[in-house]
Inverse folding.
């Protein structure tokens, strides 16, 4: 069966949505709703903050109605479902179906362990893409997720999903000690399998993650990404991130974070201010758009932002800046990447 591809409708819908919001005079608005319908996981990855941060509410499951209401309140055309491990949620098929019925573009992040089971309940759709967590080839990935056999299981799930006509991407987080050759081997393998694209970003130094030595400083990230994203190598890979964000990762561009574009809804409410940081949770989405809030967060404003280069804050920033730079906009359009706005979780 030919591999499913990214629908053109996604780029048109996102461009129309951005234009409409700008014409309304909104300077800050959501591009991607990050939805975390649970925080429970069947893994305990070495760089994960969520499973520690949400320990007291680990058994909470968001209802389908609450999940859909949060997505509709945000209004962003793209929804990234993360957590926790979404495939554990007993109603995940129902949540995805309701969002697809409303024509949201859903990217469901998963470690792949239970994906084949969920595929039986969720038919392929141009509105749905599975994003499988892959931090390296077998040895490195199993080390990163702290369990042997997960790489093989995730690979089998990707193969089944592709053969069954689903859209599939992979998501790779780089940490201190990531092996450049191994990451290249992974990207090559993913491209050869025919996935839609590999997403990549550095890990965020979650204060709740058990191993703080894992996380790269901004300068270290840039040095690693200059090797990982070496121009001679990447031409053979199918990368999903947009070229402006890749240049940012290489240290060739500077942006201020626009994390308000990726509001994150959890079992405790909206994270404030952003996907990586939650100084509080709120039930009022509007709280995330207060000017005063963003006077206090972002690079140079809060010490915890100093090393952050995550998709959710900076890939969206490339889109917003490109709107006022015809040259950058042409770069995005040429690469077919104008829709890539910080879709995934780390
Ligand atoms: S990083 Fe993802 S897969 Fe790993 S423990 Fe955290 S939620 Fe689970
Ligand atoms: S830089 Fe932005 S996305 Fe990163 S932690 Fe700070 S506010 Fe959040």
């Amino acid at each position: 069966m030919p591999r499913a591809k990214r629908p053109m409708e996604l780029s048109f819908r996102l461009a129309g949505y951005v234009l409409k919001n700008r014409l309304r005079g909104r300077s800050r608005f959501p591009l991607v709703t990050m939805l975390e319908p649970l925080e429970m996981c069947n893994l305990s990855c070495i760089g994960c903050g969520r499973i520690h941060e949400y320990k007291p509410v680990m058994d909470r499951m968001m209802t389908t109605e609450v999940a859909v209401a949060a997505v509709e309140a945000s209004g962003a055309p793209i929804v990234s479902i993360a957590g926790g491990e979404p495939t554990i949620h007993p109603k995940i098929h129902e949540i995805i179906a309701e969002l697809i019925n409303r024509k949201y573009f859903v990217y469901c992040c998963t470690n792949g362990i239970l994906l084949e089971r969920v595929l039986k309940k969720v038919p392929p759709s141009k509105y749905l893409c599975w994003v499988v967590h892959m931090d390296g080839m077998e040895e490195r990935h199993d080390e990163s997720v702290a369990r042997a056999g997960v790489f093989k299981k995730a690979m089998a799930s990707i193969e089944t999903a592709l053969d069954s006509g689903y859209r599939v991407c992979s998501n790779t987080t780089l940490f201190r000690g990531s092996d450049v050759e191994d990451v290249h081997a992974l990207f090559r393998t993913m491209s050869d399998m025919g996935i839609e694209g590999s997403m990549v970003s550095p890990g965020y130094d979650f204060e709740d993650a058990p191993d703080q030595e894992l996380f790269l400083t901004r300068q270290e990230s840039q040095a690693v990404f200059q090797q990982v994203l070496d121009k001679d190598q990447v031409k053979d890979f199918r990368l999903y991130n947009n070229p402006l964000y890749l240049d940012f990762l290489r240290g060739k561009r500077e942006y201020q974070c626009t994390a308000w574009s990726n509001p994150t809804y959890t079992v405790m409410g909206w994270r404030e201010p952003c996907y990586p940081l939650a100084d509080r949770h709120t039930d009022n989405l509007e709280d995330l758009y207060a000017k005063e809030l963003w006077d206090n967060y972002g690079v140079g404003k809060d010490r915890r932002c100093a090393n952050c280069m995550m998709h959710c804050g900076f890939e969206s920033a490339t889109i917003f800046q490109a709107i006022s730079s015809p040259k950058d906009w042409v770069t995005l359009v040429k690469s077919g990447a104008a829709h890539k706005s910080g879709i995934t979780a780390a």
User: Anything to note?
Assistant: Residues 8-335 form a domain with the TIM Barrel fold (CATH 3.20.20.70).
